[in-house]
Amino acid sequence: MRPVRTGRRLLIALVAGLTLMCCAGGTAAAFFLTGLGGNSSTTNTAALGCGVTTVVNANSKLPSIASLGEEQIHNAAIIISVGQQLKVPPRGWVIAIATALQESVLRNLGDLGAANDHDSLGLFQQRPSQGWGTPEQLMDPVYASRKFYQKLLTVHGWERMALTDAAQAVQISAYPDAYAKHEPLATLIVNTLAHGAARAAGSVVDLRCARPGEVAASGWTVPVRGEITSGFRPPDRPTHNGVDLAAGRGTPIHAAAAGVVITATCNAIGPDGKPWGCWRDGSTSVLGCGWYVEILHPGNIITRYCHMVDRPDVVVGQTVAAGEQIGRVGSTGNSSGPHCHFEVHINGDRYPSGAIDPVPFMNQQGAPLGGAP
Questions:
Q1: Which residues pair with 330 in a beta bridge?
Q2: If you average pLDDT over residues 81-97, what whole number do you get?
Q3: CB of 265 within 8 A of CB of 290?
Q4: 249: how many CB neighbours lie within 10 A of its CB?
Q5: What is the 3-class SS of the chain, one letter each residue?
Q6: pLDDT in tens, 274-324
Q7: Which label site among 272, 293, 313, 328 has the fewest CB atoms less than 10 Å from its CB?
């Protein structure tokens, strides 16, 4: 595969020693990250769409997507349509497009001379010398996409893998962690060109919105099944930087997506300003998240899970899969009863300035919050 000079590991350097308060004040920056956010906390996944069985026509007039050019969008449509014809589930389309974004920026690259990695060609930078096909074949986006999917389908458990692991199992790149950063854009592309299919689960011939507990094609899932009892920054709680998901004490809390744990600790300060600890329940007069976890996901997205009943099941530096249990619901820290306070932050910003409303964000990912446990 062609060398990737911009690949970096998922775990980035973040400011250490930050004292976190679950409901700390601050004003959030306006959020206009197309395809990742939203402007209505009431929009549900079904209303947004979860794909259709009609095969994408790459030769039709295609919508604009982010800063991509016509050639790139056309090639993405080809990748999706080939996946549909091969009956590969939508998760495979997201993986394939993220791979092509890393390898070729969705451009059908020919021989680049000294810039080539040996004889790498096409959307996926596949090499004739490694048995992918002839140079002429690999320069055909349809053929190249088909070969990618055929190899992906031989990877045991690829549907449950983190995107970067599944892509690496196919590509065998010298930069195995480079694919992850393209997952948000690949999700947006699939949702835009395939009527929200990245929010889907099920087979390509029976697409449906992902159910609670399932991982959507986007790679996201519901962290806790429970009713939303307090929303994002309501008028009476303008510093409430997430949503509260009510659930019984001990209910499992799951990683909303694959990523790396960057925080797993106790943060609870009593009314007297002294450490309160997390060996007992908190109250509304206690500050902090209690036992809590933060996970860094592709695209510099951070999720936070507060008020766990006891020490988290994960440790800092641990890689977790979407849906993996990371702790259990409790009422430690600034809490009046068992629930999971869930936050989403963008741009790797742990502060209130990076917090966004989790409800529209999770709707876009196909993992709507709320609903009975």
A1: 339
A2: 97
A3: no
A4: 13
A5: CCCCCCCCCCCCCCCCCCCCCCCCCCCCCCCCCCCCCCCCCCCCHHHHCCCCCCCCCCCCCCCCCCCCCHHHHHHHHHHHHHHHHCCCCHHHHHHHHHHHHHHHCCCCCCCCHHHCCCCCECCCCECHHHCCCCHHHHCCHHHHHHHHHHHHCCCCCHHHCCHHHHHHHHHCCCCCCCCHHHHHHHHHHHHHHCCCHHHEECCCCCCEECCCCCCCCCCECCCCCCCEEECCCCCCCCCCCCEEEECCCCCEEECCECEEEEEEEEEEECCCCCECCCCCCCECCCEEEEEEEEEEECCCEEEEEEEECCCCCCCCCCEECCCCEEEEEECCCECCCCEEEEEEECCCCCCHHHEECHHHHHHHHCCCCCCCC
A6: 999 999 999 999 999 999 999 999 999 999 999 999 999 999 999 999 999
A7: 272
Provide the token pair at 173. Answer: 């790149």
* Residue located via tokens 């400011």: 15
Structural Rg of the chain based on CA atoms: 21
Which single residue is written with the structure tokens 């995107």?
A: 163
| Rounded Cα distance, 249 and 211, in Å | 23
* 271: its two tokens: 């009314």
Distance of CA 9 to the CA centre of its chain: 16
Helices 163-171 and 90-104: crossing angle in degrees, nearest 10, is 60
- Residue in this structure with the two tokens 């002839």, named with its chain if needed: 134
Question: Using one digit for the tens of pLDDT, what is the confidence trace for 328-361?
Answer: 999 999 999 999 999 999 999 999 999 999 999 9
pTM for the complete prediction?
Answer: 0.85
Q: Residue 69 has which token pair? A: 């050019």
Q: Which amino acid is present at 370?
A: G
Give the list of residues 6+ apart from residue 80 with CB closer than 8 angstroms, or none: 56, 93, 97, 190, 193, 194, 197
Cα separation, 318 vs 207, in Å, equals 33
